[in-house]
Records
---
Amino acid sequence: FEFYGQENWQKSYRELCDREEFETRNLYCLNQILLPKFINRRIEILSWQPALLRYHGFFDEQKVDHFLKIINNKTLVSQGITQNGKTIRNAKREANGSWIYWKDYPDLITSKEYIEKYLPEFNFTAAEPISSLSYHPGGHYYPHHDYLTRKSGEDWWMDNMRNRLATLIFVFQNAESGGGTVFPKIGLTVRAEPGDAFLWFSMRGDESLEDLSLHGGCPVYSGRKIIATIWIRAVNQPILSKILDGNRTISADLII
Ligand SMILES: O=C(O)CCC(=O)C(=O)O
Ligand SMILES: [Fe+2]
């Protein structure tokens, strides 16, 4: 299988993507009922430290179909790099995507409220809009950190909401072959089912970069992968104030 940008992918990363034994760890699973709404959380802890959690059946079929309908009706644009106002093809990222703004989709309000109730550990007023992504065969996203290097004064988000604390990904459709999310420094690939979500942290307790959060979208070989990402910013997050020894990798016990 050949794809544009494949020369960037080292063999060890491709192996993590392609070999089934790296897919899951089943470290620890728990089932929680969150009151008062009786939300049933089926959590699989894929990595304890740094925390990497998969939520089985986060969205039901109806909500997944709703998101798929919205994404399929949107004009998705190539996620290249913009230079001098022109988007050029990026050998490290071959995907199409679009922002979904909650205000444009009043019907999504129940899903928005559901996310907030499902993950009460986070303050979602500090979350970016939804970023929807679609990968066709040959699509991929070379491993990177979601933590940004922009300086304050350069953008509104950095100045007001600080850097990205955590990434929450919803899976709406799986590729037939390929297309997991690889974490080379943790040594595993997440291949969650439609309706599942997974989450990890891009920063340590002192808001510095969590280097172990390196991750990428594995190349899609056949079929189409459709996911959505929500980046949660650091401002007013109760989790960060719970961490006493700041310069530490965030561990899963803070969010279960
Ligand atoms: O496609 C993936 O699995 C990962 C997407 C990603 O890393 C991102 O949206 O930042
Ligand atoms: Fe990412």
Note: The chain has one domain: 6-255.
---
Amino acid sequence: MDSLRSQGSVVKILIGPTAAYVVTDPAVTRRVLVTEVDAFAKGGKIIDALRVFFGDGLATIADGDLHLKHRRLMQPMFNKAHIATRGDVMIGHVRAATDAWAEGVARDTYEDMNDLTLSTFLVALFGSGLPGHVEAEFQSLMPAIMRGTIRQTILPGWVTKLPLPANRAHERRVARLRALIDQAIDHHRAQLAAEPDTSAGPAAGCPAHAGGSTDSPAGGSTGSSTGNSPEGGLFSTLLTADDPETGPLSRQQLQDEAITLLTGAIETTGTTLAWTLYEISRNAEIERRLHDELDTVCGDRPLRQEDLSSLPYMRSVLKEAMRMYGPAWLVTRTTTRQVVLDGHPIPEGADVVYSPYVHQHDPDVYAAPKAFDPDRWEPERAKSINRASFLAFGDGRRKCIGEEFAWTELLIVLATVVQRWRLTLTSAPPRPQAIVTVKPDKLSMTPQPRVPRTTEEKAEQPV
Ligand code: HEM
């Protein structure tokens, strides 16, 4: 991918038999994503293939009024104050899961991070107390569904419709996933209905609490519950959403949104965490500074939601992992008409591709782009980085809606793991594999316990 930049600002490549145009210059990519967005619609063969199984969720819905409506309905779910209401429950969940690791026993860290981000996301989305079998089935289905979906996007459309065993198996898994999502939605509705009325004192500044219907589209009363209790979840916003023109979301629409959120949220965040832990394991100075920051903020008590805003160095370490490893490395648009982009004619209906990975390795923007250097995000140094060259979450009207949630989850998981464990690499150094995300090919790490130091102890024993 790195070599594309040297071939020009717009590079024509072949994906199978089809031509696609990769934009490599940040100014040109900004035209595609932000300033000339009407000529570059969300779409392309990958999105078409995803839509077959995931329906019209936010990520696959075509540009236009329906997308804007869904985006408006979903925005309150990912409002910072609303996410914060789930923070301590997420922390408790991550602590319980990582406390169960055994000292000195090697673990597959990539798998761990994906499992952890999935289970934490479920707790955040649908509330606590999801029946154990639902979570376990989600856990075992998701990797196979992701693999099956990639297969569907690579093969020609007609092959994916043949009655082949692999196609049938993928359809069965997606149907099972939808059934599980239904169970999670019903579970959440039941929890909300059982909650005491909290409408008298909603969290300040959280639009998720403004109004909301008491009727649900597919039956079940939500009362005036807000999903604010430790048992409630972020999805309550959608369950109670009521568009003045089209009414509440149907069961099918709720399913489509849940499946979209699950697929958007897990591997991206899990991959980022896996790479971050790998980089920490091979950079003693970075690890020492993380420990120092955490111990200063928390001492020897467990992490709390309100600590997350006091961990700027940890944020820089995570941002650097996102810069270096993608994780979304290839995203497509489709031209709605013939366009000329920086002197390159592109026909109507062609795939235009942007790659956060390519932009984030641009040596004109990032000094020594192959070096893992969290300090490049230190505020003074970061001023020289062109913001259009950090595209981990995309840009413009299709920018990641889950960015704030991703930051919360990333900080919670990393802080909890680093506070409790030191991880040592026990496999060969991983190689990046670009599939859905840029993931490590193999990442085995062994945990050793770590005891946090209080401020007094640090003063007594300076490192
Ligand atoms: C490190 C974590 C994440 C990364 C790197 C990431 C990356 C991205 C990118 C690049 C896009 C834009 C795609 C485009 O331009 O077409 C996107 C869209 C999206 N992301 Fe994320 N994402 C992350 C986490 C999440 C999470 C946690 C959620 C859900 C809670 C989520 C849900 C979505 C959705 C629904 C969209 C579609 C938005 C729309 O089309 O309006 N993502 N993400």
Note: The first strand starts at residue 10 and ends at 15.
